[in-house]
């Protein structure tokens, strides 16, 4: 791997690399319709079997509080097939709509297991349906009004399907443990307000939030976030996930779709260089969502976790995983926020590993020898660089440091942090405690810094504690 520590020390010497542009970057999610046909044969062949790119939703913005809860990971699985949800546009109905349902609330399911409902339905004698915010494989997220508390929230309605119902129970337990450890939500995890079983549909009520950082990026034509935004969001993300790790919990599905702005209202500024209008979010406060795949240290660890693009090498190589796999995902996320493109754009394990080697250097011999997967031959990645797939990786990937947009100090510091997060060996990967002390965050304004709460044995949730309502 290129030594960014050396680049840091030698900063200011040499000629800065040219800024990367659309023509020099690897294809990414926003370009799927145009780049997919030209993707490498190995990736195209694998795409049907591995739908691990879990898509986000485009949630509508409102004049007041934006809606919540974009895309959620569906269910923890023990095989290497991920579940893909569709990105959809949704149009909310007015909260004061007069088109009330003339019938009793539905207890009917459609053929896929979704609850059939209409605007005006009242669920559990309390929650009035206002609009559909989004839909995924696991179920739907609905804007509702709490008739008792007289305020609006988002209700996640899980399909009446056993595997999704059980996954929802796991998420509820994780959220209950998080609330027990952090009742005031100081550690930036989404707040669960209520949960109930509605005729076989597990329902979870959440606070209202804004767009996900991915949805905002997409709606902004994939113009990357300013560096100060990347710094604040990255700091909060490290802070939130460190809290989970201190609570002996691994999120396992960190990605831009699972990071939501508290408020995604924005200003518009004209970019003279690109000659386009660019949205700039007013507040970069975020919340972490989707704990459906979260795993406590003492629990069974499924073989495959994480959405494809953010999956750590030890997961792909089936070497076992722990909390460092979250750190790898954060490194990929910081890269994506900084550049507006996905670092590892692939749907094939072997190609994914080849991209890693092209960007980060050779995979350690120890990991290559220990894995029982068939991706290596005599300790080296079995990859034909002269094949069409090899040419695809060579043409669309480059060493990490060459993605720098500037040789300015703050840019180099960011890439130094990313490099430490993308260390192959999990035991050598930077911890989030050390990441929060990295010089990249030194420039963070005092107003954006969070309390230095260090979890100790007295503050941690007991590893084997059980909820009275649901047992894991």
Automatic annotation (TrEMBL):
Chain intervals with Low complexity compositional bias: 30-39
Domain Protein kinase residues, every copy: 127-441
UniProt entry tagged with the keyword Kinase: yes
Binding positions for ATP per the UniProt entry: 156
InterPro entries in the cross-refs: CLK_kinases, Kinase-like_dom_sf, Prot_kinase_dom, Protein_kinase_ATP_BS, Ser/Thr_kinase_AS
Ranges of compositional bias, category Basic and acidic residues: 71-87, 463-472
Record keywords: ATP-binding, Kinase, Nucleotide-binding, Serine/threonine-protein kinase, Transferase
Superkingdom of source: Eukaryota
Gene Ontology molecular function, alphabetical: kinase activity
Signal sequence range: none
Bias type Polar residues, positions: 15-29
Region Disordered, residue ranges: 11-39, 63-113, 451-472
A Pfam cross-reference name: Pkinase
Keyword set includes NAD: no
UniProt family annotation: Belongs to the protein kinase superfamily. CMGC Ser/Thr protein kinase family. Lammer subfamily.
Name this polypeptide is given: Serine/threonine-protein kinase Doa isoform X9
